[in-house]
Specification:
Distance between the termini: 11 Å
Structural class: alpha/beta
Radius of gyration: 20 Å
Order of helices and strands: EHHEHEEHEHHEEHHEHEHEHEEH
Shape: elongated
Length: 331
């Protein structure tokens, strides 16, 4: 059975509605999943002539009402916005709506009505104006699912990366890494790929220092102190984990198929290879959410400057939908 993917519309003043409609003009999406948009039907109707889309917008109230046919976009219509909402302007009304779309998607995921969530971009300033004081999607999802331990996963063609740390300075990132965090992220990677149908996924951990420390030659024993105990704990539980591996060769090896996923120690260690492999096809994924909820996202923002002009590239949106299909739990 094809997975049901809930696609949240994001900030309606940005490019989210455009890239969703453009993506759902691709029959290949419908061949692989049942897409259901969670947003405002009137906004999608408004962008149809902008993107020259010959599709029907089908308003539904429950997942069971969806027609699931190519050429028909099924929309759970929350009906929160005016049809003349200005493009490219920060709006508390749009920010609140973007939050409500996510909340609805999480509720559907918790009830197993949808198998994964794919999010179009939101605008933090607009969301704050709308009364929802979160840094972004990840924190909203963590709050709504009552999750404390989660991680960022990035994918590009032939490469998956999950992070021990992300948006902190390098010195702080190294301080934050410890054996328990290493173990938890390895386990998150294993569980996520296992639920997606990959048997005994191979999880490779990057070293922190050049050459993964080269047996103490570089660094101050960070690999031995912060990584190896976590790796060994995961291996003792039967997880197919290995490392720490030198980062300068590990991503090449993973891209050619030696490993299913790489554990990166800090932001740029993981992000740089992903962007080199295909920045237009990059996808941001939140894993570890309670209830097995998988969320994928485009790897760009709302692009207010080009909203409503049919300039926005939908490749990242398509890639995010396809990643949601790939990672949707099969149990």
């Amino acid at each position: 059975m094809k997975p049901i993917i809930g696609i949240t519309m994001g900030d309606a003043a940005g490019i989210g509605p455009e890239i969703i409609v453009k993506s759902l003009m691709d029959k290949d999406i419908y061949d692989q999943c049942q897409p259901i948009v969670i947003g405002d039907a009137k906004i999608l109707e408004r962008v149809k002539p902008i993107v020259k889309a010959d599709v029907q917008i089908n308003v539904i109230h429950t997942v069971s009402e969806a027609k699931n046919e190519f050429g028909i976009i099924d929309v759970i219509d929350l009906d929160l916005l005016p049809v003349d909402l200005p493009f490219g302007q920060v709006s508390g009304e749009a920010g609140n709506a973007a939050y409500q779309y996510i909340a609805k998607a999480v509720a559907l995921a918790k009830e197993k009505e949808i198998n994964a969530i794919c999010t179009a971009p939101l605008n933090k300033e607009a969301m704050h104006k709308g009364g929802h004081l979160y840094p972004g999607h990840t924190e909203i999802l963590a709050k709504l699912t009552d999750t404390e331990d989660f991680s960022m996963m990035l994918t590009a063609p032939n490469l998956k990366v999950i992070h021990l740390t992300t948006h902190v300075g390098l010195i702080k990132a190294i301080e934050m890494i410890n054996p328990e965090r290493t173990y938890k992220v390895i386990k998150l990677a294993h569980e996520t790929l296992s639920r997606a149908g990959i048997k005994n996924p191979s999880v490779a951990v990057c070293g922190i220092n050049p050459h993964a420390g080269e047996n103490g030659l570089f660094g101050n024993g960070e690999e031995e102190e912060k990584l190896i105990p976590g790796i060994e704990k995961a291996k003792a539980e039967g997880i197919n984990a290995s490392g720490p591996h030198p980062a300068d060769t590990l991503f090449f090896r993973a891209a050619r198929g030696d490993f299913d996923i790489v554990v990166a120690c800090y932001h740029d260690q993981g992000h740089a290879p992903i962007k080199v492999m295909g920045i237009e096809d990059g996808v941001n994924i939140t894993v570890g959410l309670k209830g097995g909820v998988i969320r994928t996202s485009v790897d760009h923002g709302t692009a207010f400057d080009i909203a409503g002009k049919n300039i926005a590239d939908s490749r990242s949106m398509k890639a995010a939908i396809k990643s949601a299909i790939e990672l949707a739990p099969r149990d």
